Amino acid sequence: MMEWTDRHCRYFHRLLTREARIYTEMITTAAVLRGDRARLLASHPAEHPVALQLGGSQPRELAECAAIAVDFGYDEVNLNVGCPSDRVQEGRFGACLMAEPLLVGDCVAAMKAKVDVPVTVKCRLGIDDQDPEQSLDALTRAVKQARVDALIVHARKAWLDGLSPRENRDIPPLDYHRVYRLKASHPDLVIVLNGGIANLDVAAAHLTHVDGVMMGRAAYQEPWRLLAVDPVLFGTMARFESPLAAAHALTPYVESELARGTRLNAITRHILGLFRGAPGARAFRRYLASAAVKPGAGIAALRDALAFVAHSETRSAAA
Ligand SMILES: Cc1cc2nc3c(=O)[nH]c(=O)nc-3n(C[C@H](O)[C@H](O)[C@H](O)COP(=O)(O)O)c2cc1C
Q1: What residues have CB less than 8 Å from 73, skipping those under 6 apart?
Q2: Does residue 231 have a cis bond before it (omega within 30 degrees)?
Q3: Looking at ligand 1, which atom is closest to the CA of residue 196?
Q4: What is the mean pLDDT of residues 217-235?
Q5: What pLDDT does residue 316 have?
Q6: Using one digit for the tens of pLDDT, what is the confidence trace for 246-272?
Q7: pLDDT reported for residue 144
Q8: Share of the chain residues as helix, strand and coil, in percent rounded to the nearest 5
Q9: For ligand 1, is residue 81 a contact (CB within 6 Å)?
């Protein structure tokens, strides 16, 4: 997620779950090929398994970027066919590719020919006045023929004409049954459902219909939920017994990043929701949000913020 799942966020989320797959922000092929590649694609070895999401629509460029992603150690390459922003539409990629399924198929085929890691696509049900029955089927057929490894479906249309990117995450109605039907008619294709999944109970219910679930805002805004992913969805032990224990486990990373010149807030902005709903959470958030942006803010600001929640009852790793 743009501006959200940067490398600091991903390191933190990986502390909360060993099993979940983590995705980068969308990075355009132009940025990978002509931008500051080392900075854009940097990741920490602890992040795995981690997928790089690419934005683009030129098969040859996407194939080149996929190969670069593999060189940088990414475990999966995902193509964005869901982003509705104007900038993306001008570049003829993102959600507007829902209108060009054959091109998306060519993109997937080109990437598959170049790399051995999974190549996946994240799409919408359709755009604007497309009929989701046909648009999603056409896209699925095209990527399946190109041997895509999984299709992640944000279960709503994007209305490119008239809605902002933000509105496009909430206003077009969710239609989970459309995605369930897609899975039923393509039992051999890995289908992952995304959109509006608020907690792990809901996720588990979807998993009776589809192969996987992707959580966006709930995972970012209430990251404590990720502590339950391993025990609840994968049957393995939670990495930490409480959000507080996870926060303490993050401090060596914060210290080493501060020593490299990273600003405290660049990391701690991602943990503001860690105690959401628990006693002391509001004080933690408020204190950290203002202390971490002060010039020269150091590890003491994080420690002081944690004191607001340290003595409160800690939330166990439950959904
Ligand atoms: C701040 C923000 C940035 C996003 N950036 C991306 C992105 O880079 N690529 C993408 O595929 N989706 C992006 N999305 C959409 C989410 O991945 C997801 O599809 C959407 O929020 C619906 O899922 P949710 O209800 O679980 O959040 C973004 C969403 C938000 C809130």
Answers
A1: 43, 45, 48
A2: no
A3: 25
A4: 98
A5: 47
A6: 999 999 999 999 999 999 999 999 999
A7: 98
A8: 50, 10, 40
A9: no
Distance, CA of 234 to CA of 181 (rounded, Å): 25
Closest Cα to atom 29, ligand 1: which residue? 1
Distance, CA of 143 to CA of 55 (rounded, Å): 16
Residue tagged 């907690």 (tokens): 199
CA atoms within 13 A on the CB side of 237: 3
For residue 287, give the 3-state DSSP assignment.
Answer: helix
Dihedral in degrees, nearest 10, Cα atoms 194, 198, 201, 203: 10
What residue owns the CA closest to ligand 1's atom 12?
1
Query: Which of 160-169, 227-236, 284-293 bottoms out in mean pLDDT, i.e. has the lowest?
Result: 160-169
pLDDT of residue 318: 43
Per-residue pLDDT reduced to its tens digit, 76-100? 999 999 999 877 777 789 999 999 9
Q: Which of 83, 96, 107, 123 is catalytic?
A: 83
Per-residue model confidence as pLDDT tens digits over 166-182: 999 999 999 999 999 99
> Is 207 a pocket residue for ligand 1 (Cβ < 6 Å)?
no
C-alpha 1 – ligand 1 centre gap (Å): 5
DSSP three-state, residue 106? helix
Find the 82 Cα to ligand 1 centroid distance in Å.
Answer: 9
Report d(CA 61, CA 42) in Å as an integer.
20
Q: Whose CA is nearest to atom 11 of ligand 1?
A: 80
pTM listed for this prediction: 0.96
Ligand 1, atom 5, residue with closest C-alpha? 1
Q: Ligand 1, residue 214: give the atom nearest the CA.
A: 26
Give yes or no for residue 82 CB within 6 A of ligand 1: yes
Q: Is 107 a catalytic residue?
A: no
Q: Looking at ligand 1, which atom is closest to the CA of residue 26?
A: 8
Atom of ligand 1 nearest to the CA of 1: 5
Sign of CA dihedral 168, 171, 172, 174: positive
